[in-house]
Amino acid sequence: MSLVKHTLAILALLGLVASAGAETIGPGGEEATPSSTVVVGDEKVAMVQAKRYSAALLWHDQSDFVNAVTAGASDEFERLGIEVVAVTSAGFDAAKQRSDIETALAKNPDIILSLPLDPVTSAAAFEEAKEAGVALTFLSNLPAGYEHPKDYAAIVTDDLFQMGKQAADALAEAMGGEGTVGWIFHDAAYYVTNQRDNAFKTTIENDHPNISIVAEQGIADPARAEEIANAMLLKHPDLGGIYVTWAGPAEGVLAALRANGNDSTKIVTLDLSEPIALDMVRGGNVAAIVADEAYELGRAMAASAVLDLVGEEVPPFVVAPAITVKAANVVEGWKRSLNIDPPASLTSN
Length: 349
Prior knowledge:
Blueprint: H1 3-14, E1 33-34, H2 42-51, E2 54-59, H3 64-79, E3 83-89, H4 94-105, E4 111-114, H5 119-125, H6 127-131, E5 135-139, E6 154-158, H7 160-174, E7 179-186, H8 191-207, E8 211-219, H9 225-235, E9 241-244, H10 247-259, E10 266-270, H11 274-281, E11 286-292, H12 294-309, E12 317-320, E13 322-325, H13 330-338, H14 344-347
Parallel strand pairs: 1-12, 2-3, 2-4, 4-5, 5-6, 6-12, 7-8, 7-9, 9-10, 10-11
Antiparallel strand pairs: 11-13
Helix pairs in contact: 3-12, 7-8, 9-10
């Protein structure tokens, strides 16, 4: 049994795996609260502004996604008169993240927004901030042993179940509601990708009775995607569609289809990517990309931390909406997700 299937089996016993009609759950089984309900109301703005709070944004990496989260948080902080005193990128290095935290704390921020890279290392790294009374809001991950509300304001992430569900519905639509599908899932114990992937499978099985998943393969190394797709196509040459856990490995699957001269098998994947979107707008194999609203993630992170500081009750697990991006709405999709215009290559075809 693969690592992710073993993990899902355990979660199922605990009642933590999404089933038909289920919703996104947090890393500890927390119920999801829509980000739209986490708002610092206009009546609180003057009071917050008078506090002259400051904030540090300590990210795991640098990307269009992180830039959009930063923009959402920064715009909310500006509205509330909160100075951003540090924005850092750890480059997926837990030691660098710890150093970033120590450096930021020298500036005495009242708020820290961050994605903890490693649960154990991060638990120690954020300890000083926690003891200093800094309001901590985390993106997607949670340091080991941290409890809500005494240790952090909130976890904010994507509506994971909706991302998988929308991917399933988009692929079913592209296939005319019938046919066979290959399922390439993330073979690692990570609640974000596990829920997205499993929601796709659940939705196909429960909502699309004329579509069958006939090939399943986990992937840990995105570089193996083309090899995995070739093996699927060799055994199932008439596959109507392939779900790929995120856009990086989807590029390998697309390469396999092109190498086989296959222009009929449809692809759906998650998270925006220029190469994948370019195939989509050109009418290729890619039917749709499901993305999160990264700008809204940032806004909700900022709002949750501020509400915590002013003594308001904040839900422990907050989710931002998902959006299905197709050729017809690629401009809107890029703007809603990343708060930027799409690459020129996507609008010049």
